[in-house]
Amino acid sequence: MNRSVYTLGIETSCDETAVAILRGETTLLANIVYSQAKLHVKYGGVVPEIASRNHLRKLPYLVKEGLEHAKIKFSDLSLVAATYGPGLVGPLLVGLSSAKGIAYGSGAAFLGVNHLEGHIFSHQLAHPTVKPPFLALIVSGGHTSLVKVHHYCEYQTIGATRDDAAGEALDKVGKLLGLDYPAGKEIDKLATKGDQAVIRFPRPMAHDTGFDFSFSGLKTAVAYYLRENPTHKVEDVAASFLAAVIDVLVDKTLKAARRHKLTRIVVVGGVAANSLLRKRLTAHGKRFGIKPFFPPLDLCTDNGAMIAATAAFRYIHFDQQHDLALEPAPSLEF
Ligand code: KG4
Ligand code: ZN
Question: How far, in Å, is the centroid of ligand 1 from the Cα of 301?
Fold first, then answer.
């Protein structure tokens, strides 16, 4: 019965226009992402107005392409879902309004999805047999949170950033280093060519007993270093800075897993694509019998598949749907 549920998932909370078609809970029939990054690059970050206009421009074609890819028609859809928060209000409004229109026109159910829960569900798509309980580390451009996942749809946030998210710090330091936005992937690459022992940047809140993070001081430390060392080698700065970010993420996450007696960690969000994070968390986790799980790279950064998966789960297990009056919630939390 579940296999006959076809879900269209739409993600437009920031600068990725993304669409996916899912059959049942985990069979992906289409997953298309259009990144607007090149449209924002000259501004050094996402311009909400430009993002909204381009979601509007691209989304209808991506939906059409998704249906063609999945070889289904609008009338085959059981459920249409879109991210309703957190994110930029204009971009959210485009995806949400489109989803409502398609649901209404095709007679499908409609469901708004929390983007953060969406990231957690990228794990279920990648590793359907690895079920909760587990600890989730959500590390993206907008969020850095440690969430205890008792069951899917039952979450307890045990730590979060007090200022910048890890991805945000990577993007801001990237800008200081003259890299294009978003800089996380490029810093990942540059760091492999540099020496992380050259500069000892601070490990913010590393010795704090709680599980909160703080990355804005680290970004300032890099800014001071660059000003005082104009002949710096970019690769060494990237490697030393990235090592500081990853040390904090790995230490805090393992500490939280041990304190809460969880032996599995699910790492999701754009920064989960980082090669040093993958390597270190896996190696250090082994010492404590803790195993991290990472989705494939295309499911780490924003995508429609994670939105479809969240919605399908809630619809199939809890018969959940939303009224078409649902509004965007830019500051939505768990
Ligand atoms: O999840 P995501 O696509 O969007 C948000 O929900 O924020 O994450 C985007 C973030 C950006 O900050 C980007 O620089 C970072 O993920 N990112 C990476 C890598 N690939 C993307 N950070 C570190 N290493 C990577 N390989
Ligand atoms: Zn995201």
Answer: 6
